[in-house]
Amino acid sequence: MNIAVDTEGRWKRLKAATSETHDRLDKRIMAAGAFATKERYGLFVQMQHAFHRDIDALYFNPKLDALLPDLSGRRRFAQIEQDLADLGISPLALAEAPEFGAAADIPTALGWLYVAEGSNLGAAFLIKEAEKLGLSETFGARHLAGAPEGRGLHWRTFTAALDALDLTEEENQRVIAGAEAAFRRVHTLADRVFT
């Protein structure tokens, strides 16, 4: 992959292509009352842990690191593990292997990372809901904390790098398919924890 600016805005096309799946997921999580009680919130954190377990290896992938700014600094798996410990709950027992290992299809992985980064942007609302439960960026809701430079700049830096990638149309379709798969995976996890 070469670097060239995507003047149409890949991330905007990605957002449009995945909006239905994304909206369905948001409604599922809100309908589950994920922030109604600490117990329900704990289920939400278990869901987050399982999703971030699936993608954790991507944050150590040298090919992705060369394409995306501060990739390792965007990793939230350790904070989610600490949130589980703060809440005194265990992660979900998952029989299946994580979605990604040491090797990954880069366009597909970009789609999954788009979903992870977007959820961090949306966490600005969720942290306020967690605070109503007595949780904070230093206890129980660490993974919902904003980046030191601010959520907006953190997101814009990511989307600018995503837009700057020179991808073929087939690779662009794999990015979209990856994002769709990531949203579906979180939906499956939500169905599992919020039964």
Distance between the first and last residues' Cα: 42 Å
Rg, nearest Å: 16 Å
- CATH class reads Mainly Alpha
Which structural class do the helices and strands define?
mainly alpha
Number of DSSP helices? 7
CATH homologous superfamily designation: Heme oxygenase-like
Strand order of the largest sheet: 1-2
CATH topology: Heme Oxygenase, Chain A
Describe the protein's topology.
Blueprint: E1 2-3, H1 10-31, H2 38-55, H3 62-67, H4 77-87, H5 106-131, H6 151-164, E2 165-166, H7 169-193
Antiparallel strand pairs: 1-2
Structure description:
The protein has 195 residues and is mainly alpha-helical. It has 7 helices and 2 strands; from the N terminus they run βααααααβα. The N terminus is likely disordered.
Quickly list its features:
195 residues; 2 strands; two-stranded antiparallel sheet; Heme Oxygenase, Chain A; globular; disordered N terminus; 7 helices
Summarize the structure.
The chain is 63% helix and 2% strand. The protein is mostly helical and 195 residues long.
